[in-house]
Each structure stands twice: as C-alpha cells, then as structure tokens.
Design brief:
mainly alpha; Fumarate Reductase Cytochrome B subunit; about 75% helix
Length: about 190
C-alpha cells in the first residue's frame, strides 16, 4: 500500500495547522487583550488618574501602536498559510495528493460527511487566504480602504468558519483515533513511509 503520510504531506499538514493556529491566536488577542477599544479607554482612564488628559483619538492611536507587533505576526502566519496552500496545489498537480472534490465524489456513502467537511475546510481556508492577501495588498491591487470593507467582512466570516471546522477536524481525529486504533496521530507525526 502506498504511504499516505509522506514527509511532504506531513510538512504541508503541520505548516497549515500551525499557520491556522497562529492566525486564530492573533485574532483572539485582537478581540480580547489587544482590543484597541478596550485599551484606548484604559489608557485614557489611567492617564486621567495621573492628571494627564489625552483625547480619545490619541488613546486609540496608542492602543493600535501597542498591538501593531501582533499584526506583524498575523501577516507572517498568513504568509505560511499561503505557502502551505502552494505546497498542497503542488502535491495535487504532482499526484501526491488527491483533489478534495474528487475525493468527495468517489467516497463511499459512510465517508461522504468526512470528505464533505474536508472539502468545505479547504474552501473556507482558501477564502480566508485570498481575502487576507487582498486586505494586505489592497493598494497595489488598486483598491481603496473604503472599497474593501466587504472583503474584510468575508475574511472575518471565513475565520469563524475555519474555527468551527478546526474543532470538527480535531473531534474527527479524536473519534477516529479511539474507534479505529489506527494510530493516525502517530502517523501524522512520524509518517508511514
């Protein structure tokens, strides 16, 4: 039997996984500890306690400057996500991986749900990557900041989709590991080639 978890496959999988985890983590930081809304109010309030008054706009500018390094990490994780997508496309073209749509169409009935979730995960990650790249390169692409608001919304919606699908993926791996005892986690780490 041909090995499924080759070195290239594992490199692709873990590059994708770490990229998605990093991207989701930076968004979690943005929505919680590094939220400019919360931090701007906190900065303004704490400075007021010391007798220093600043405008809400200045507090917002400071709060955004504090979280700027986090966005650099978001862009780096996005770049690695893009690299993992290129690796996967190469694998499909080199016949080292199968195209997810064909996998779904050829799957037996009991595999359809799993293959469908996998295909949807691939689609949502592609949407997230393309919208993220559009947001990053909006000026060279000829967009204005105001003209890409819909892209930002689609990017955020896809992030929620990826989050949900990652939870489903991990649940499926856990279920598979317990029910089939095939050692899929070990194979994904050590390979089967």
């Amino acid at each position: 039997m041909e090995p499924q978890f080759t070195r290239l496959y594992r490199i692709w999988h873990w590059t994708m996984a770490l990229s998605v985890i990093g991207l989701l983590f930076t968004v979690l930081l943005r929505k919680t500890f590094l939220s400019w809304h919360t931090n701007a109010a906190l900065i303004q309030s704490k400075l007021a306690e010391t007798g220093t008054e600043i405008t809400a706009e200045t507090a917002k500018m400071i709060a955004k400057a504090i979280r700027a390094p986090m966005w650099e990490w978001h862009y780096i994780f996005g770049l690695f996500l893009g690299i993992s997508i290129v690796i996967r496309i190469y694998m499909i073209l080199a016949k080292q991986a199968k195209f997810p749509l064909f996998e779904l169409l050829r799957a037996p009935k009991e595999e359809k749900l799993k293959r469908g979730v996998h295909l949807f995960l691939c689609f949502v990650i592609m949407v997230m990557a393309l919208t993220g790249a559009t947001l990053y390169f909006y000026e060279p692409l000829g967009f204005t900041k105001e003209g890409i608001g819909w892209v930002k919304e689609l990017h955020e919606i896809s992030m929620y989709g990826v989050l949900g699908l990652v939870v489903l993926h991990l649940g499926g791996v856990f279920r598979h590991e317990i029910t089939t005892k095939e050692g899929i986690v070990s194979k994904m780490i050590h390979g089967d080639d």
